[in-house]
Write a structure and sequence with these properties.
This protein is mostly beta strands. It folds into two domains: about 35-145, Immunoglobulins (Immunoglobulin-like, Sandwich); about 150-380, Immunoglobulin-like (Sandwich), CATH 2.60.40. It is built from two helices and 22 strands. The chain has helices at about 5-25, 370-375, and strands at about 35-45, 65-70, 80-85, 90-95, 100-110, 120-130, 135-145, 150-160, 175-180, 185, 190-195, 205-215, 225-230, 235, 260, 275, 290-300, 305-310, 315-320, 325-330, 360, 375-380. The longest helix is centred in the first third of the chain and has 23 residues, at about 5-25.
Length: about 400
């Protein structure tokens, strides 16, 4: 057989194999009008009485949103569907496009204050992931808990590093924002880097795993030394200086409000006040992954040693009851979640590659649904201390 014929057959076979392998990696796709989802929204907080006939505590009038994790509409937004639960807690979505979806459920319940005798409204939330690919009807249950909300939120994260070939990412920062009407105090609060690992029981445990913990000075919960006024930002820099002097396009953080500092590692200490490493065994500055990680903000009243890795690295557990905000970011929207859905049901920073100079920021200052896929947008240029226009 001529050499050219052999080469042509080889190329054809290789192309077919590549096509087959590519198809095998893709989720199955189903056209409109063939898929549906039946959801039951139940209360797990104890605020709703179980129905003796139904066998569960239905939450009526809850707002339910289905948000695709990998499909976009023509307007650039994630494909989504909305509905409200009926008196039985039932929601039926029909004519759904095949995809993996985040289910976000929110609602309110009246609670009687035993002291004052008055009724208050308490927010409930629930989140699950569902795969809707097979023809016919899928079914699932969403359990709603009392919503963990905080006026103080993580408003922007810059982690990718500037455009460069020197692996320079030391101009990273985390921006906080006080979305409330009252002054909050940063005293004793902690900012943590989440462990890059998915536990099998991630949505059942009452803590988040952290790799390291950095703490503001002062006493947690009771301290009043470090105020953040309403509608104000606070920037915590990995290193608070003008990084553009060293790398073109890097961020000028000489005006940062705070600086992460590790006294156990010979870390550079600039003039900004310090948010200090609280784990003496950790010799790492506050560096976060340039494509996927989670940032945890907690009140600092409790954290403790968890498991130890095979390399004798001590992981830290942050109780969910102390968590104020969590933002998980990922370049890949189909990445497995590494934090519980109850604190963040999505991903910020989808599509941001390493060393691109981009950051991720809330759509509006303080806008928070506990789903970073909905809450955040990507910025071509970081905005430390102010909101993009």
């Amino acid at each position: 057989m001529p050499i050219n014929s052999i080469k042509k057959r080889y190329v054809l076979i290789s192309a077919l194999l590549a096509l087959l392998l590519s198809c095998a990696r893709q989720a199955p796709e189903v056209t409109d009008g063939t898929l549906s989802l039946r959801l039951i929204v139940t209360d797990a907080s104890g605020l709703v009485e179980p129905d003796s006939v139904l066998g569960y505590a239905p939450v009526a009038g809850a707002s339910v949103e289905l948000v695709s994790r990998n499909l976009m509409a023509s307007d650039g937004e994630n494909i989504h569907y909305q509905a409200k639960s009926d008196s039985s807690g039932l929601v039926l979505f029909e004519d759904i496009i095949g995809s993996q979806y985040t289910v976000n459920v929110s609602g309110e319940q009246s609670v009687l204050d035993p002291v004052s005798g008055s009724w208050d409204r308490t927010s409930l939330r629930g989140n699950i992931l569902v795969d809707i690919y097979q023809p016919g009807q899928s079914a699932d249950t969403v359990k709603m808990e009392i919503s963990r909300t905080s006026d103080l939120v993580i408003n922007e994260i810059y982690y990718a590093g500037p455009v460069n070939k020197s692996f320079y990412f030391f101009d990273q920062y985390v921006e906080l924002y006080n979305a409330g009407e009252d002054t909050v105090y940063l005293d004793g609060m902690i900012i943590c880097r989440g462990r890059q690992f998915r536990r099998a029981d991630i949505d059942e445990v009452d803590f988040i795993q952290a790799v390291y913990v950095y703490q503001f000075p002062g006493e947690p919960l009771t301290g009043r030394e470090y105020p953040l006024a309403p509608k104000e930002f606070s920037v915590i820099a990995q290193d608070a200086f003008d990084h553009s002097k060293y790398i073109s396009g890097a961020v000028d953080l000489s005006g940062a409000d705070w600086e992460f500092f590790n006294p156990y590692a010979g870390d550079w200490d600039g003039p900004a006040p310090n948010v200090v490493n609280a784990i003496p065994g950790n010799g790492t500055d506050f560096m976060i992954n340039v494509v996927h990680n989670a940032i945890i903000l907690a009140d600092g009243s409790d954290y403790y040693n968890g498991e130890v890795s095979e390399n004798d690295y001590q992981y830290i557990h942050i109780p969910l009851s102390t968590v104020l905000d969590v933002v998980e970011y990922s370049r890949n929207p189909e990445k497995q979640k590494e934090v519980p859905l109850s604190v963040d049901a999505g991903f910020a920073g989808v599509g941001i590659g390493k060393y691109t100079g981009k950051s991720t920021e809330r759509r509006e200052p303080g806008f928070d649904t506990n789903n970073s896929s909905l809450d955040f947008v990507n910025l071509n240029t970081p905005t430390p201390g102010w909101q993009h226009q």
